[in-house]
Amino acid sequence: MQITEQSSLYDNLEKKSVREILEDINREDQKVALAVQKAIPQIELLVNQIVPRMKQGGRIFYMGAGTSGRLGVLDASEIPPTFGMPPTWIIGLIAGGDPAPRNPVENAEDDTRRGWEELVEHHINDKDTVIGIAASGTTPYVIGALHAAREHGILTGCITSNPDSPMAAEADVPIEMIVGPEYVTGSSRMKSGTGQKMILNMISTSVMIQLGRVKGNKMVNMQLSNHKLVERGTRMIMEELGLEHDHAQKLLLLYGSVKKAIDAYQHSKNY
Length: 271
Hints:
alpha/beta, Rossmann fold, 2 domains, five-stranded parallel sheet, 11 helices
């Protein structure tokens, strides 16, 4: 039996107090970071192959169904505001398409051809990377896409919570994050979902840093989409250039990003 389908280590959950339930869940969640830690060598291997491809204009495609697909869409959607990158650089595809993040689409994950068809619609090429996400490692939508991608010479990776899964067999770099049985038996939205989000954070953040989208420890390319972020950007410029608040904010709003404002100011001082 797959680990993700094994019975919970806990029973009679409905008889427990709220405090007991919360402490149990927290106890199980503490296992997730350790499972992710063990997967770091494989995550590193994947990132080191993604970066040179993206420097040549390649993209990342996350593919999944249900919770796994939603997490891919979530991570992809956070790249433009956080790092100021176009939404076409990291793309989240979910079985069932756009309605699926809010409303599950019946049987969509069982279509072995649709995943690759969606990649073709995005004009996928050999500079791109496809990362399958499935706790079980058995989702046909993802497996079919990975299989076809490999046949076309495209780098493939995957994130799964079961060892030696069919999905891992189709990935150049399989990331196996073994978190054990879920607190609610089979509910992979719990530990598996938490671990998937952690790994997606690690992949996208490390790639963006390697691509120069962070300076020091700051999001110097973030989109200025609200007052909080304008103030954060203003403080970054004040710290970097030693300017007063109003001067720093004027530069920020003029140039549209912390990096562009700092570069323009430093350039003007050199001439």
